TrEMBL record:
Biological source species: Thalassobacter stenotrophicus DSM 16310
Keyword Transmembrane helix on entry: yes
InterPro entries linked to this entry: Na+/solute_symporter_sf
Transmembrane stretches, start-end: 12-30, 36-54, 66-90, 96-117, 129-148, 160-179, 199-218, 224-244
Name recorded for this polypeptide: Bile acid transporter
Keywords on record: Membrane, Transmembrane, Transmembrane helix
Taxonomy, superkingdom: Bacteria
Acetylation found in the keyword field: no
Length: 310
């Protein structure tokens, strides 16, 4: 079993692609897995917490300031700029505009540290951005939610959502940290490889459930699906590539974890409180956005190789 998980870890990027294909072409399985997405994400966080450990994930006090600056810029500054631009052109009522603004206001994707592992990068900075970004989510997302008010509940709705998410993530990650502390042998290379394989497998299963809205739209209106997919691809690629290039030009640290965070957000968190008429088109965007997100390790690896060769 451990050997099988280690093999999956070595081919983690292709495991993610397999999950995308299953979610796209096996809609019955995708619909069946959709209610389990939340618990699976919590389990993924726990596994990642075991893999990284509290000391490595939280880092030193010197690591907090750059992380907080990134979170402020990416979770508040960037979505407010986009909201302002779309508002000037009168486009905020478009479903795609709402989806993009909410995506930019969301914290890091729960699988971001695992993406870094698949690329041979240190997962600790990604975990730090994930935990801090989610902890600050009630504050960073509040201005955007007050302007858009997607659920019609104002600030109270936004705070309730944020607090629930914070508790769930801290419980899952804290459990992982506790297990790592209780069993120090899990820091050895072989258990670490097994944990990486377990995380890759969980990510592949989660994406199947998140693509539950894609299969029906593919059959009923494939052209509309193409439009949503092209928008998702363009947004993700621009965010990832621009962040990498800017980090390299400015000589900033952790460019890859920052790029993963910039382009891969946990927009699915908003589906918990949004009314069905708002959540339906948003679910289509969530499903389409899984494709570029789960291709991020492949895209970033190639970008790194090109940069190194240049």
């Amino acid at each position: 079993m451990v050997g099988c998980l280690i093999w999956i870890a070595r081919h983690g990027r292709y495991c993610l692609i397999a999950g995308l294909l299953v979610g796209l072409f096996v809609p019955a399985l995708s619909q069946a897995l959709r209610p389990w997405v939340g618990p699976l994400i919590a389990l993924l966080l726990c596994v990642t917490g075991i893999r990284v450990g509290a000391r490595q994930a939280l880092g030193h006090l010197d690591d907090l300031r750059p992380a907080l600056i990134r979170i402020g810029l990416l979770q508040t500054g960037l979505p407010l700029v986009v909201v302002g631009v779309l508002g000037v052109f009168g486009l905020l009522h478009w479903p795609i505009a709402l989806a993009v603004c909410l995506m930019l206001a969301a914290p890091s994707l729960t699988g971001a540290p695992n993406f870094a592992i698949m690329m041979g990068q240190d997962p600790a900075p990604g975990m730090r951005l994930l935990v801090l970004g989610t902890a600050l989510f009630p504050l960073t997302a509040l201005p955007v939610l007050l302007i858009l008010d997607p659920a019609g509940g104002g600030a109270l709705s936004a705070l309730r959502l944020s607090f629930g998410l914070l508790v769930a993530i801290l419980c899952a990650v804290g459990t992982g940290f506790g297990v790592r502390r209780a069993f120090p042998a899990l820091s050895a290379p072989r258990p670490q490889g097994a944990l990486d394989g377990c995380a890759a497998l969980l990510l592949a299963i989660v994406v199947v459930g998140l693509m539950s809205a894609i299969g029906p739209l593919l059959r009923t209106d494939p052209l509309a699906l193409v439009g949503w997919l092209l928008a998702a691809l363009a947004i993700n690629i621009v965010l990832v590539v621009v962040t990498v290039r800017l980090s390299q030009a400015r000589n900033w640290d952790i460019p890859v974890p920052t790029a993963i965070y910039a382009g891969n957000r946990n927009i699915a968190l908003f589906l918990i409180v949004l009314p069905e008429e708002v959540a339906a088109p948003l679910m289509i965007f969530v499903g389409c956005y899984q494709i570029p997100m789960y291709l991020t390790p492949v895209l970033l690896s190639r970008l790194q190789r090109r940069t190194a060769s240049a």
